[in-house]
Amino acid sequence: MDNLDLMREISVSSPTKILLVVMDGLGGLPSPKTGKTELETANTPNLDQLAGKGLCGLIDPVSPGIIPGSAPAHLALFGYDPFRFKVGRGVVEAMGIDFELKPGDIAARGNFCTVDKAGLVTDRRAGRISTEKCAELCQLLDGWMIDGVKIFVSPVKEHRFITVFRGKGLEPEVSDSDPQQVGIAPQTIIALNPKASVMATVANKFIAQARKALANHHPANMVLLRGFSRRPNLPTMPAVYKLKPAAIASYPMYRGLARLVGMAVLETGASIKEEFDTLKQNYNNYDFFFLHIKGTDSAGEDGDFERKARVIEEVDSALPVLLRLEPDVIVVTGDHSTPALLRGHSWHPVPIILYSRWCRPDKVDRFSESACISGGLGRFPATQVMPLAMAHALKLTKFGA
Amino acid sequence: MDNLDLMREISVSSPTKILLVVMDGLGGLPSPKTGKTELETANTPNLDQLAGKGLCGLIDPVSPGIIPGSAPAHLALFGYDPFRFKVGRGVVEAMGIDFELKPGDIAARGNFCTVDKAGLVTDRRAGRISTEKCAELCQLLDGWMIDGVKIFVSPVKEHRFITVFRGKGLEPEVSDSDPQQVGIAPQTIIALNPKASVMATVANKFIAQARKALANHHPANMVLLRGFSRRPNLPTMPAVYKLKPAAIASYPMYRGLARLVGMAVLETGASIKEEFDTLKQNYNNYDFFFLHIKGTDSAGEDGDFERKARVIEEVDSALPVLLRLEPDVIVVTGDHSTPALLRGHSWHPVPIILYSRWCRPDKVDRFSESACISGGLGRFPATQVMPLAMAHALKLTKFGA
Description:
The structure is a homodimer of 401-residue chains. The first copy, chain A, has 401 residues and is of the alpha/beta class. Chain A contains 14 helices and 14 strands.
């Protein structure tokens, strides 16, 4: 039985409140100098106290060994099987710039790239042009109509942009034009399903026109498209869990993911303190809060071990603001690991605290990767976090007679 | 999503190397005298040091409580779901004597047995005749043609032999003739699928002719056949993992299993030292090595606790040869447990070490069943060993956007 079907069957609405704090990329690897991870290096008296009162463990966002993208990692935390519910690359990028996708829209991730006279790709990133240059070039391509399909082109960062196709009869099952390597020509987009032939035709015409429009803009003299996808129709958290959920996230992509699962997305400042204040101000209006902290992941991606530890300390210092609200269930975890040593997402399992007055505490009194190994939650799939949080909030009824 | 489909999607070729050392039947049970298992009794400074630097845990070869055969246990270690990918008994036995099965061949496991004048089985193993006698009797039956089907009969050990049927229109879905008990007659082989009627007819004719040919060879005056099966068409490790894998195993069955999943099978001497030398000599030519050590299992099957401990010590002493090659990932484990106290395969989970410079070490610094309980890998299905090894060798890309 699917997790969500089970939850839909046994969840009940109640006044209890659940708080899910996600430090993006929380899990780390030990520094060769000290043998301690970022989390173990940070001074975290409040998190340690919460670990002492609660249950600890380690979660596998997707499955052991798998490096999760942000979308599957978050969907798993919200209880959605990341193998069943997929969000395409184009949609994720569009959400990342707060582009409002309408139901039939098809989004694709784009790269400005460089091609030589023979049309072969020589640089898939067009020398990483500036974001300003990207925005200027996007304006050249934005707003076209091809075969009755309106095309939106919006800059993301450096050479990256999104293309959104809006019109009738568009289906996303088409191949990429991005060959993912240099020395060969951009690929003709092919319909992988007969229904997607209009999409393939329009996309190929767009690319041909874009090449002409960009002819004099070397090194950004061509485009590569990939990850054609449509906003998926996900079951919503209100329908599945009977919750009134709200998201507090400063990065657009996470706000977009929260919207996909039916959360209200609250306006918030970007700092940790501002996010916590937003929660405090809205505390009476919702019974589930997803609070997303991006700084841990950004520092990890930058390879900045010390900064990642400091972001964790900043969350720890602000934590009493949340604790004073006395939520019935507090979960503190990450969506995946981003060890500074690897400068990117990794497969390592992620430490988690689950606190509730109804939890059966373990002996862990330190929030760290190594301490969590012996926690009472054990090592388990991230998709089980929501059922556990719901249970500890007394929001689940008995299963079976 | 199936493990292999996922790996096929996200695996990439890279120069890093993975070494999978399988001590067959490694897991044990404590001696009533000392309270220590075979592994805990052995003096293993090198394995303990590796455990200290790496991650430890316990694997369930098939699932908790299930006693695995060698084929499912190995397939699981290679990442193949043992419930989905099955290798029939006949095929396993044929591989065990290096019989080269062609694509359409059907193999069955055979027993010489004793029947009385009424045709009832009195001994399913014909008094465990010698292997020499078995070979002599196999020659009487080998090479027959029945209804255009060529029949090969080859000795295995004592009363055991294999029969391979080669011809057109043969399908393996037929019942066994072996009644698995004495006091009743060998069963008529029945087609369990209409397509398998030729196979059933030929097998029944073979058995009738064999009975005549063996009439004067009491106690081996009849044959019992079971486990009719065809060599399965498994996805290969090069296709799934983009690896160039090699197997070092002295027992034919394990070489056969390795061939089934597309490994190169290296010529090797049978001793542990010779196997390790084979690895060293071939180290530059492959990026994945499956090194199989049989002695642990044989000692366990013989109920020889001390010998099993000594084989483990021998592996430990030779280990520096492998460590000096500095593979990127080293996995040391077993395919299943074979406690000397049980004199056979058992369901007990199997200790595992996974070492890589990218592992997040735990506090286990002793390679033993009891220490592995608190290891950072936790307790997990053997099918996840390969995804973890691939991840730690940086051979997997991100899943999802």
